[in-house]
Amino acid sequence: MPEGHTLHRLARLHQRRYAGTEVSVSSPQGRFVASPVDGSVFRRAEAHGKHLFHVYGPDRVVHVHLGLYGTFAEAPLPVAAPVGQVRMRLVGPTHWTDLRGPTRCELLTDVEVDALRARLGPDPLRRDADPARAWDRISRSRSSLAVLLMDQSVIAGVGNVYRAELLFRHGIHPSLPGRALDPALWSDMWADLVTLMRLGVRRGRIDTVRDEHLPEATGRAPRQDRHGGEVYVYRRAGLPCLVCGTEVRTEVLAGRNNFWCPTCQPA
What pTM value is reported for the model? Predict the structure, then answer.
């Protein structure tokens, strides 16, 4: 599932290509009722966590959640015939965009958007994010940090990669209860998360490895993985830790495989 930086990249892309212009919106697949926004002016695009919003006006907001299988395909004009099950097609003055396979693609009112966002935690990539809201939940919880970080009502936009990497970078064992976390350490973690996710928006991939551990500094081979980017522990189970050489471990937490180094992240 795409993590928050991907949705913010999409929001920026759609903002550049469509904001302030009249667009054609359709559903070749027929599973999205596009008529209320077809021919409207695309006002803005924004993201909150793993949710994307196309705003057309009061009570006319298209909400997209990609889920595990959703994808956007972008291309310059002219428009080509739909390929596959296209849930939503957006056509502007210079480009067109197809959406396939999302978990959600729906038209919401402003009240419904507010209600959805109220259920989400602060998004490290948004200027209106309040990390104190996340800390309030974390500091009172007996759940492990590995579980809390994946809870979108605690922090919006963090997925499996950022979860594992953030815990590693701060030497925290995945099983540490939220209420046992030091508040000063939480402040450092939040600041680090903001930096890492902003870097992800700029680069279009997740990079978490510090300069001294990069391939060019250590002489190791670059990471070869469809997710791209250089990471410390994510999907590196059975391989040596890039810092201490201990074998990286994995276990299922919050329904997803988590990864950690037992030496750098002691229980």
Answer: 0.94
